[in-house]
Design goal:
alpha/beta; 26% strand; 572 residues; 5-stranded antiparallel beta sheet; GMP Synthetase, Chain A, domain 3; 14 helices
Length: 572
């Protein structure tokens, strides 16, 4: 039996999962009840024909059915394959194609969903021409008889890109990968099983699944679990769990803390005390120094210690966590000399700031927050375009090796974004190490993270070309970095015209208002292409960073720094 599932044989009756209801209440299910339900689900899956090693698609929102289906899949010897529910997609038509692609690529033997989602799931399966049964799990009675433990499947999880554009790729995460990463997380956070966790992160995404659910349940700690939409309606409910002593750990992307900050008024915080909030992990996207400084300043009068912030970096190809700041000390931000920053060159730091509750000086100038050193057993390297390690302090691609590195991908060609090569992940992220901590600058050309969601340039470019009437072969999009902020550069082999002014509105339909947008026009040849005709985005990214773009800049549209009013969640 895996160490991750040992609790199923010896569940603690005094601890379990508290699921947020539609009002202010919470429904509690202890670990014995959850274990019994997981065994009944396993029996139902085996009765439906699921064999050891089969993939099982789980199309469920966060809740008890998801927990039972996930662990029931393991008990049946299957590989769970969580899929984002349709609420994470604005376009229901796009969701049907996304779901069908995941089910086809995973080779799922069966899909588990609930009554509300069943019509959508069945329609997607039918449209894709798949012969795949659907089991509707709505807490209906299941056989009381247990199921003989199957041999544990080697692949413990298929983690697909969720809530994103692009062809889905399933990261094959082994049980050994999962065990190693959960152990690393526990050691990093000095995990105390008597301290509870609270999370609103979706369980189909690795940060919510592994960082919140698996890490907490494996230790049989108490977990207060909310759905993302419940957090958006009332983030103070999340804060109350941390301010009244029930929970001591929380994890969220920067946008989650920024959103909650809006509700941190004296009236809402009255009676809350945050001295017991031991860890506030920040990850899944670039960590915003200004947001951390503001949250620390706002909560300091209520006992919050900025040393609880744990900026972290990770990705699905390394299961989840790769680096993490040391607990106890406030995070440190650095200010690079952005005008000198080039890929492969040394990064010059002009200032540092400790985020301990005071306002951040010169906050709009591109501060970067250190995401800590590599977790025990993991190695982080900064490499050049050939994969060779660069000297300390130089900007390059982040590469990761260690026991949590996944084996690769299922059913999908390799990518130029994130690649797994001989046990090493070439992440597609640009970064450097300073003071022993990894500092992530941004994605390299092919994709970018927006509110925890990965947006791929190829798909965004195709939609932009269509909306602008430019033609697919006359424009290319490159993700970039402008003074430490996410940026998009659209290169067009076209004369400037009325279409230029439409670019920000067209692109912001997909990326929101916080991204800087630049338009560059030029003659044929402005867009560098490979022998296959595809844009050489990485080459153009390096040329843009070095100021060597041959075209004419005809528009600069800076993004706003305003916190989002709504959120779409997902990590690679």
């Amino acid at each position: 039996m895996s160490a991750l599932s040992a609790w199923l044989d010896a569940p603690r009756p005094d601890r379990g999962v508290h699921m947020a209801g539609n009002g202010d209440g919470w429904e509690f299910r202890g670990y014995p009840e959850l274990a019994a339900s997981a065994h009944r689900v396993a029996a139902r899956l085996r009765a439906a024909g699921v064999e050891p090693g089969d993939a099982v698609g789980i199309v469920l929102p966060s809740g008890f059915p998801f927990v039972e289906a996930f662990y029931g899949g393991w008990l049946a010897g299957a590989t769970p394959c969580p899929v984002a529910p349709p609420g994470f997609f604005a376009d229901t038509g796009a969701y049907a194609g996304h779901l069908a692609a995941i089910l086809r690529t995973s080779g799922a033997r069966l899909a588990v969903t609930d009554g509300a989602l069943a019509p959508t799931v069945r329609a997607a399966i039918e449209a894709a021409g798949l012969d795949l049964p659907v089991w509707v799990h709505d807490d209906e009675p299941a056989p009381e008889t247990g199921v003989a433990q199957a041999a544990w499947t080697e692949t413990g999880l298929l983690q697909f890109t969720s809530g994103s554009t692009g062809t889905p790729r399933g990261v094959e995460v082994s049980m050994a990968n999962l065990e190693a990463n959960v152990r690393q997380i526990h050691r990093w956070m000095d995990w105390d099983p008597d301290e509870g966790s609270v999370s609103w992160l979706p369980l189909h995404h690795d940060m919510g699944l592994i960082g919140a659910l698996l890490a907490t349940v494996t230790a049989q700690s108490d977990l207060w679990l909310m759905r993302p939409e419940q957090f958006l309606r009332d983030p103070v409910r999340w804060l109350r769990c941390l301010g009244d002593g029930r929970a001591h750990r929380a994890t969220a992307p920067t946008f989650g803390y920024a959103y909650a900050l809006r509700f941190m008024t004296p009236e809402r915080l009255d009676g809350l005390e945050f001295s017991g909030w031991r860890s506030a992990i920040v990850g899944a996207e670039r960590v915003d120094a200004g947001v951390l400084a503001d949250v620390a300043e706002r909560l300091a009068p209520y006992g919050f210690d900025a040393g609880a912030f744990l900026p972290a970096y990770g990705l699905a190809e390394s299961t989840l966590a790769v680096t993490g700041d040391a607990p106890g000390a406030p995070p440190v931000a650095v200010l690079p000399e952005w005008s000198d920053v080039v890929f492969g060159g040394e990064v010059r730091i002009t200032a540092t700031a400790v985020l301990s509750g005071a306002p951040l000086p010169r906050r709009d100038e591109g501060w970067l927050v250190g995401c800590g050193p590599a977790l025990d057993g993991t190695r982080v390297q900064i490499v050049d375009g050939d994969g060779d390690e660069l000297p300390p302090g130089h900007l390059g691609e982040v590469a990761v090796t260690g026991p949590a590195v996944a084996r690769g991908y299922r059913g999908s060609p390799d990518s130029t974004v994130t690649r797994v090569r001989d046990g090493r992940v070439l992440t597609g992220d640009a970064g450097f190490v300073h003071g022993g901590a990894l500092h992530v600058v941004g994605r390299i050309a092919d994709s970018m993270k927006i509110r925890g969601r990965t947006v791929y340039m190829e798909d965004l470019e195709a939609r932009a070309a269509d909306r602008l009437g430019l033609g697919a072969q006359r424009c290319a999009l490159v993700s970039s970095v402008a003074d430490g902020r996410n940026a998009l550069v659209l290169l067009a082999e076209a004369r400037p015209g009325d279409w230029v002014g439409l670019v920000p509105r067209v692109l912001r339909q997909d990326v929101g208002d916080e991204v800087d947008i630049t338009v560059v026009t030029g003659r044929r040849g402005l867009i560098r292409r490979g022998s296959s005709g595809k844009p050489r985005r990485r080459f153009m990214w390096r040329e843009l960073q070095a100021g060597r773009c041959p075209g004419e800049i005809v528009l600069r549209d800076p993004g706003t720094a305003v916190a989002p009013t709504h959120a779409s969640t997902s990590k690679e």
